Amino acid sequence: MAVKLSSLTLSRGIPKWVPLIACISSISCLNRIPAVQEIDQTKTPPNDNEFDLRFQSWRNRLMPDDLIRVLDTTHDLNSAIKLFRWASRQKRFRHTADTYFRVILKLGMAGEIEDMEAFCCEMVREKCPGGEEALIALISSFVKHRRLSEAIRVLVIVTSNGYKLPITECNCLLGALVVDRREFREILLVYKEVVKAGILPNVDTLNYLIEALFEINWVDSALDQYRRMPRKRCSPNSKTFEILITGLIARNLVEKSVVVLGEMIELECEADLIFYSCVIPLFCSVHKAEEGMRLFRRLRASKLVPNLLIYRVLIQCLSEGLWLGDAINLLEEMIGCGLTPEDDLFVYIIKGFCKLGKFNEAEIFLEDKCVFGTDPHNALLEGYCTFGDFHGAKVFFEKMFDMNITNNFSWNILVRWLCENAWTSKAFELLSRMIISSFIPDSATYSAFVIGYCKLSKCKNGLELFHQVCSKNWVLDSASYSELVETLCQMERIQEAAEVFCYMSSNRCALKSSSFDMLMKGICLTGKVDEAIRLLALAYYSGASCSNASYKAVMLGLSKLGKHGDILVVLAKMLVGGCTLDVEAYCVLVRSMCALNWTEDIAQLFNLMVSEGLAPDSETVANLLLCLSKHYQLHMILASVGRLASDGEILNSSMYNLLINGLLKEGYKSEACQLLDIMLEKGWVPDALTHGLLIGSSVSGLPDEETLAYGNFSEQDKIGNILAEGLGET
């Protein structure tokens, strides 16, 4: 901020060392500080006697300029403050805004905020000429040196004393806070101080506020500030729309960003190349080619010259959207502007032709544009194979071979297609020609043949190739890796599959989720649950995602081994990994907790399961009821039992008998009678024990597991059991 020194009212003439225009701030003396030196707090400050002796000759003729020169060369903070106070005690000396500026700046740079604030207030009380400009210059200096907390404190003092701060200085502070991603409360405080001081915010002020609101995901508030701009006598500029569109697209609110773009065009807001270079790639990244082209046409209408990035993203987006005519026109325009397209732009267009099955047009395009790069030709070759036209691929490959533009990838495309279609013998013929042509097989070649052997169920040959890959310190590609693991699992060669997984995972290669699930199930079925748990850790290391199926396989394996406590550890890993519990996982957990007699946890878990609409199997319910009845805790699942009784056929007569018995013993007679009514509605008759409790008979004990077992309750339904008790039979 350039302000003439004459705006300061000083007690004497302008010193000779002061330039007429201050380039750094509105305080002239700032020009004498090229940089704020580090403050050395280790030195012992001189005592009063030393000060008196050193400055004895200045007692009656000390001038502010003299003090400023000494302060500038005093690196010790305590000494500088002591010197400042010594000067204050001199009868004929009065501090100026410049001297206050020096000591306040030193304190702020040292992080002594409270002392800094006290000196600011003292300068205001002393009513030093130029004090207002000094405070403003302090804000500017603190912002420049990223002492933003100090700048905020000074700002509050400025506004609270009725000084007018230029909006440009406020914007510099706001901008620094936003760039440094400081807490929103600090940004809001600065904005409130601006408003409180009666300073009218401009578009830059509001842009910083909107950007800060997006940072904390207050999208509606950000849009509200944008809508209210006209009320604050501001018109949104291109930076406003850049912030809005960027923030909305980053939060997957693409349709809202399209609406905002429409409003920008309707307002006829002019934009610069920076805006277009930012926003066009954003729309292209979310496949909004129409909006990208809309902006591109405005760019050209503004007489701006598109750069290589804009052409690249538009051609890619148009090609992926199969707008090939527009993509080719842009490519030709780009060439006409003197920009040389790289091969990847031709690749995008060729892939578009291949998706449409227009292979002849793709070849003509390559010929017309005199494209001799290998990558665009490989893209077309791969397109032939993907489309299943191996004859067309072979003919085109021969053209490439004659043009001497084939590479390893060209050969591997054909080898891969043959292997994937189980034509391994023809693939070997092609491999022989490849080697004769001085092309050395690489990991992609080996990966193709691994797939070929797996397609033929020759996993032994596939494993041999895999071991050769390991010996060369290579890795298989993702598809052949998954194919090999799945084939080995299907042929019950689980240990070999685990070895493949361990090698690939150690090289940070992630296995497809479904393939990993198959491997985990196979290992757990062999009883090697500890190894399965080790593989879970390897999967995390390699970046593979573990699904519910993998965790359930481990949990089931642990349950069969009776390691119920370990299941909870696996559950914790499962939840941390972002997996959710399905009905099978819930059932395993409930049965494990029953084995551990964790009644309260069982009840909570069961209630959660039923509340999510999941219906447990009868075996799980039987275990649950037995466990809770033994500990007189059946009342804890009353609501869930009611839902199961009304929604399905999970509860059998044995379970009803146990529930009624247990609830009566726990003092829940009303609920027990309701279950009895449901039981009778289903045509089931309570057993002798339940009947005895209902009529007040002194029958003790609870059913055992055999009595409760599903499918073993026909005798309990006989009326004879009840009659026998009524007649006193034993």
Describe the overall structure.
The chain is mainly α. 67% of the residues lie in helices and 1% in strands. The protein has 40 helices and 2 strands. A two-stranded antiparallel sheet has the order 1-2. Helix 8 runs antiparallel to helix 9, helix 20 packs antiparallel against helix 21 (390-403) and helix 30 runs parallel beside helix 32 (583-596). The longest helix is centred in the N-terminal third of the chain and has 14 residues, at 113-126. The protein is extended. The chain starts with a strand and ends with a helix. The relative contact order is 0.02.
What ranges have pLDDT less than 50 throughout 5 or more consecutive residues? Answer: 1-46, 697-730
Task: Please give the alpha-carbon distance between the first and last residues.
Answer: 106 Å
Structural class: mainly alpha
Specify Rg, calculated over alpha carbons: 40 Å
Q: Helix fraction?
A: 55-70%
Number of helices: 40
How are strands sequenced across the largest beta sheet?
A: 1-2
β-sheet strand percentage: under 5%
